[in-house]
Amino acid sequence: MELPSSSDLRKTFDSMLEQQHNGVPGVLKVESETPEPVIGITAMTHGNEPSGLAAIWYYIRNHRLQRLLDVTKKGSVIFSVNNIAAAQDYFRLPHSASPLQKEKCRSQEVNMNRLPEDILGRQSDNRREIRRALELCEKVFAGLDGGLDIHSVRTESRPMIVEVKGKGMSAARRFPIDIALTNMIPVQMGRPLSAFYGGAQGNVPVVGIEAGQHERRDSRRYAIQCTRLFLQELGIIPWQEREKPDSMPGYITEYRVAKGVTPPENGIFHMAKEFGMFEPIDPETILLTQADGERVIRAGMQGCVFMARPVSMSLPSTEEACFLSEPAKQVARASFGNSQVG
Ligand SMILES: [Zn+2]
């Protein structure tokens, strides 16, 4: 499969800035003869996560998606660059900028995956990401019939499927990924932007992926493959004969999220060490330590730690420093998503 270079992603970002849909910049709609269902493929909800642009690059190149929709004559696809302002900060950095500088481009004022639950009523909240999320929710995302939100992670990691809502997990069961994170939304602080796809109360299929490490070429491949499989599964683009297995063999390893760990407000805390993705923990494992004091925060449970912040960073009390999951469980791929609820 042909993959975009970093400069291709930057050009894709620049060309998306010139697009708009319903007056909302950074959004491109590609339609068939029958406009519905409308499926969203979204990138850069965090400004330092460019791999979702690979899917946009792939499908707008040579009108690839338009030609496929001309065959199926079914549905339309909305591509969105969600956090334009933070992504601009990211693309202004030289490619050689440090990981910490890039990490700071995740968001400007509000993490778009930690939005206030009452955001749809926040007409006078002028923080940049709140304004952007509101215009996207009201004019673009409320009308979605399904969505795939593409993210990536800081550390070396295999790709993951992330449960959002509806039958999203079932629509993701053919993704070439064998790790799934479930129960994230009930546990995390605030709401991810993707929870508003199809409306706050809508139960359309929405799923996320963590495609791998932010700037790895592999992450771009996963972004493209999962976009293709998601659109195929929802009947928007055709299957190719050789890739239509009735049931895929194998298992998916499910990590059910149990809790987020947030530092206390009084005191400066750091991660106790650099934690790897899904490193096993027991109740005594020290997760966080106070910089100038004696206090430590222990795991208090058996399971795994994941998405831990870098050890060099002082941890804000407004966001999770890491998450803990129950011990991993194997789920048959063929029945994956059947038991999930939205
Ligand atoms: Zn992200």
Would you identify the CATH H-level superfamily of the largest domain? Zn peptidases
> Uncertain regions: pLDDT < 50 for 5+ in a row?
none
Largest sheet: 12 strands, mixed
Mean pLDDT across all amino acids = 93
Strand segment tally = 17
Bound ligands, named by name, code or SMILES: zinc ion
Helical stretch tally: 9
β-sheet strand percentage: 15-25%
What is the CATH topology descriptor of the largest domain? Aminopeptidase
Helical percent range?
10-25%
H/E series, N to C? HEEEEHHEHHHEEHEHEHEEEEEEEE
Radius of gyration equals 20 Å
CATH C-level label of the largest domain = Alpha Beta
CATH architecture of the largest domain: 3-Layer(aba) Sandwich
Search tags:
342 residues; alpha/beta; Aminopeptidase; OB fold (Dihydrolipoamide Acetyltransferase, E2P); 12-stranded mixed sheet; 3-stranded antiparallel sheet; 17 strands; 24% helix; binds zinc ion
Task: Report on this structure.
- By secondary structure, this protein is an alpha/beta fold.
- It has two domains: 238 residues, 3-Layer(aba) Sandwich (Aminopeptidase), CATH 3.40.630; 69 residues, OB fold (Dihydrolipoamide Acetyltransferase, E2P) (Beta Barrel).
- It is 24% helix and 25% strand.
- The strands form three sheets. Strands 3, 4, 5, 6, 7, 8, 9, 10, 12, 15, 16 and 17 form a twelve-stranded mixed sheet that branches. Strands 11-13-14 form a three-stranded antiparallel sheet, with no helix packed on it. It has a two-stranded antiparallel sheet with strand order 1-2.
- Strand 7, helix 7 and strand 8 form a beta-alpha-beta unit.
- Helix 1 crosses helix 2 and helix 2 crosses helix 9.
- The longest helix has 17 residues.
- It is globular, with a radius of gyration of 20 Å.
- The model has no long low-confidence stretch (mean pLDDT 93).
- The site of zinc ion has 4 residues, from loops.
- Zinc ion (ZN) binds next to loops.
